[in-house]
Amino acid sequence: MGPQTRGLIRLAILFTLVSATRGICPSKCTCNDKLLKAGCEYSNLEVVPIQLNPEIRTLKLNHNRIASIHLTFIFYKNLNELDLSHNKIKTLGSKNFEFQINLTNLNVSSNMVKQLHKDSFKGLKKLTVLDLSGNLIEEVSDRTSFKDLTNLEELNLSRNKIYMIETGVFDYLINLKRLIMHDNELLKVPENAVNTLNNLVEMDLNGNLIEDLSFPSNLNNLEVLKLRSNVITSLGNDSFSNLYRLKYLDLSDNNFTHVSKLQFSKLLHLEYLNLSSNLFRHLGPDSFRNLYKLTEVYIDNAVALRKVDSKLFIENINLKYVSLSNNANLKYLPKFLFLNKPKLKHIRISGNDFSTLDASDLPLDQLETLKIGRNPFKCNCSLLWLWILKERQMLNNCTCTDLSCYEACADAVPKPKKLSEESETVLGLAFHREVYPIILDLDEVYCEDYQNARRIPFKAAPKSSFDCTVTWVLILTAAVLATLFLFLLAVIAYILRIRCKRRAKNPVETFINATKSYEDTHHTYYRYGSNLRNGDVFEVLKSEQKIDVYGDKPATNMYIRTPLGKDSANSFPYAINRVDTEPRKQCRKQYSNASIPDAYLDAAGNYGMKNYMSETNIYQEPFAGPFPARTGQRPPHIVYV
User: What residue range is the signal peptide (predicted)?
Assistant: First the structure.
């Protein structure tokens, strides 16, 4: 007879004796035979006690020094709940829970387990909750580890060192609803492992090393997704396209820099969204498009955030809680950001860089909580509404049964007849506060005194700091500034008018000599008539066509003008003049209507007079000297087209 056999015989004898006496409760344990519970927490135990009542259903052995569980639970077949957390267990072995067929809750967290074996959970067909968090597991590779756990609803693998989960490991967990794997070393979402979890409702992947997101198409029932504290750098437009029932999404503490209008647009059931501690600089009007059921949104600690569009929440009509705090570079609250949000009750905009806050930008008549502390406010007229709220808060804290109440609140605003009927308009905004005033964090609100480089508690600021009276000095200053502005506009208009009247003198580069009159006196380069010397011209001349080249510029934009003479149409030839090919925009019309020839050629090809011409008159003056020629280049000449 071997030693193992003798040990089993001794255990059987002991089990018989214990059963006969209904168990013996160790001195360090607490036993309740009526409730069938035994608790041996913090008892410095090194082994599992076997002399307890074998009928117990709840056994707590947490926070001890137990290192082995081999063949220790064969006496307790009726267990429903077993807590082995915070011990020194290194292995779960094989078939050590085979007789606990009624066990529903098993906690082995905060031990030293490194590996899951084939039959570690053999026989636990009724188990619904399994906690393996806080161990030393690096990979889950045995596909049969969870084979008997077909009724498992919650699996906790958090706070391990898991970097790899084999495909098919979770195939037997057909009823799993919660999968908790935060604080591991996963590099990606275990897409191939979770693709069979059709009933999964919550997946916690916080605190991993996930960079890119991809989810299988069959997570149709997933409602909660936690991805906080990963290294996600971008969100694709289809990242969440398969998660159309998602209600809770936490993407805080990641590295993505952009939020587009398509990234969340398919999450029609989303109610909670956390984008805090990311690197985006701007949130546009379509960032939360189609999120009609959104009730809570958190955009905190976004160190790069500089602008929030006023239409960011335009479609989020069911918002109840908005947190937009600790954004060091956000300098103002957009107007109308909270417009038409009838259910909005709580706003947190503390710790930003706001210097002022307009009452019209906040739904004060419906708010229950408003957190605005730790902003560098300039206490002036724009914060009078806050000063009045502060005074009202003081009044609401008074129970006015006699005159002593009013003496204690002597500095407050005029006494209301009844607080329940209070209604006052401040800066055009009506406050209707009955029993419950707005909860403010006034202890964290300060006025920045930049002149004296100090901060003044808002509660201590006098009413004079918020005086809205406009003095005559301000009126005079505004009038002077307006006058200077109008004068500057007049000077600019005058300069533009003078510049448009001046025309740059362009040298005549191209002439076409004619012997007969031409009917259209204002015909441009679209078509030349007939009977021009050396043949008729019927081609339409475009501005980009090269007529002649003088120097480095093509002669374009040709104009035909009236004959240079009053009586005889044949006494003078026509002159065609090139104008500026790129006139200033404000002068374009003037240039095109007033182009005139600077010189012309007579019938013999000689240079003639320099002429200035209007609609009705012709002016002539002597042309000074021959037409200038550039060094090394020929002078302009007649073009025979």
Answer: 1-23
Alpha helices in 73-203 (DSSP H): 191-194
Q: How far is 550 from 633, CA to CA, in rounded Å?
A: 8
Does residue 72 contact residue 99 with C-beta atoms inside 8 Å? no
The answer as to whether 348 is a domain residue is no
Encode pLDDT of 613-624 as tens digits. 333 333 333 333
Question: Environment class of residue 582 by beta-carbon count within 10 Å: exposed (0-12), middle (13-18) or buried (19+)?
Answer: exposed
Domain count, the chain: 1
Give the residue carrying structure tokens 């076409």. 512
The b/e string for 211-222 (b: 16+ C-beta within 10 A; e otherwise) is eebebbeebeeb
Instruction: Give the β-pairing of 610-613 and 618-621.
Output: antiparallel
Q: What is the pLDDT of residues 459-475, one digit of tens each?
A: 888 777 777 665 566 77
pLDDT at residue 315 in the model = 95
Q: Is residue 624 part of a domain?
A: yes
Pair 438, 368: CB distance under 8 Å: yes
Determine contact, residues 154/177, Cβ cutoff 8 Å. Answer: yes
Q: How far is CA 522 from CA 134, 401, 525, 545, 561, in A?
A: 93, 96, 10, 20, 6
Q: Where are the alpha helices (DSSP H) in 232-334?
A: none
Residue 626, C-beta contacts closer than 8 angstroms, at least 6 positions apart: 607, 635
- Look up residue 377 and give its DSSP letter: B
Is 601 a domain residue?
Answer: yes
Share of the chain above pLDDT 70, in %: 66
Share of residues in the chain with pLDDT > 90 (%): 50
What burial class does residue 5 get, using C-beta atoms within 10 Å of its C-beta: 0-12 exposed, 13-18 middle, 19+ buried?
exposed
All residues at 6 or more sequence positions from 553 whose CB lies less than 8 Å from its CB, including other chains? 509, 581
What pLDDT digit, counting tens, does each position of 501-543 carry? 554 444 333 333 333 333 333 333 333 333 333 333 333 333 3
Q: Does residue 538 belong to any structural domain of this protein? A: yes
Q: How far apart are the first and last CA of the chain?
A: 127
- Rounded distance between C-alpha atoms, residue 135 and residue 362, angstroms: 49
Q: How far apart are CA 123 and CA 128, in angstroms?
A: 13
Q: Which of the given ranges, 206-215, 420-429, 459-468, 490-499, has the highest pLDDT on average?
A: 206-215
Assigned token pair, 164 = 């790899």
pLDDT score, position 23: 73
Q: What is the DSSP letter of 511?
A: B
Q: Where are the alpha helices (DSSP H) in 222-269?
A: none
Query: In this model, does residue 489 exceed pLDDT 70?
Result: yes
What count of Cα atoms within 13 Å lies in the side-chain half-sphere of residue 297?
Answer: 22
Range of the domain at 599: 503-641
Three-state DSSP string of 319-350: CCEEECCCCCCCCCCCCCCCCCCCCCCEEECC
β-bridge pairing 369-371 and 154-156: unpaired
Higher pLDDT: 275 or 462? It is 275
Determine the pLDDT at residue 384.
86
SS (H, E, C) 549-614: EECCEECCCEEECCCCCCCCCCCCCCCEEECCCCCCHHHHHHHHHCCCCCCCECCCCCECCEEEEC
Helix, strand, coil percent content, the chain, rounded in steps of 5: 15, 15, 70
Helix H or strand E encompassing 393: helix 384-396
Q: Are 309 and 336 spatial neighbours (Cβ–Cβ below 8 Å)?
A: no
